[in-house]
Amino acid sequence: MTPHMTETTMAALTNFRSMNESTPEEWQLIAKSVSGDNAGMANVVIDMLNRLKGSSLAAPVDPYEHSLQTATRAFKDGADEEVVVCALLHDIGDLIAPQNHAELAASIVRPYVSDTNHAIVLLHEIFQGYHYFDKVGLDRHLRDKYRGHPSYQATAEFCAKWDQASFDQSYQPMPLSAFEPMLRRVFSRAPYGGNRTPHVNYMGFRVNMAPGQAA
Ligand SMILES: [Fe+2]
Questions:
Q1: Is residue 14 part of a domain?
Q2: E strand or H helix that includes residue 207
Q3: What is the distance in A from the centroid of ligand 1 to the CA of 90?
Q4: How far is the CA of 66 from the centre of ligand 1 (A)?
Q5: Which residues surround ligand 1, an ion (CB under 5 A)?
Q6: Which residues, given as ranges, of the chain have pLDDT below 50?
């Protein structure tokens, strides 16, 4: 046995080959080895934001700059910290999920934000269409199917005041470092502590029991 193989063998506290054959005792060992279900999330989203730099040459500003502009406008308009963080992250899925980037961003923030703010991120892709869909042959009023939704007005305002306005090459946004403390505070919250997402709690993990559904 090589030293490397010895290390690998010793690192594994459990040895089931499938979940079906795992034991409660093994899951207790796994639970002890993890530090919590949102540990490191702030670092992950900061890394994702940085990867947006230079990712689009066609738009007037790249998605990184657009994200900073959107968050800066929200902050300067007095939006609360959670909304500012949602503004910063609303397009974080541009690279990894270009066809459903809003769903991806909404899933990332969902455990840590209100139902309203989750809906804003989830629906912003359709609502921002009010500001340009007519220019690409679509109906700019597609958002109307959400009339009566409790987050309709908030999402419309998010898009009108901050999202659609944030492609301005002459605008000087706040740096990402200014938003980092806000990000870290929001992602250090107890998951699902501030919304109505059905979830279960086991081994220190809180897991969404209604995936794909907007509250
Ligand atoms: Fe956007």
A1: no
A2: strand 205-208
A3: 6
A4: 7
A5: 91, 163
A6: 1-9
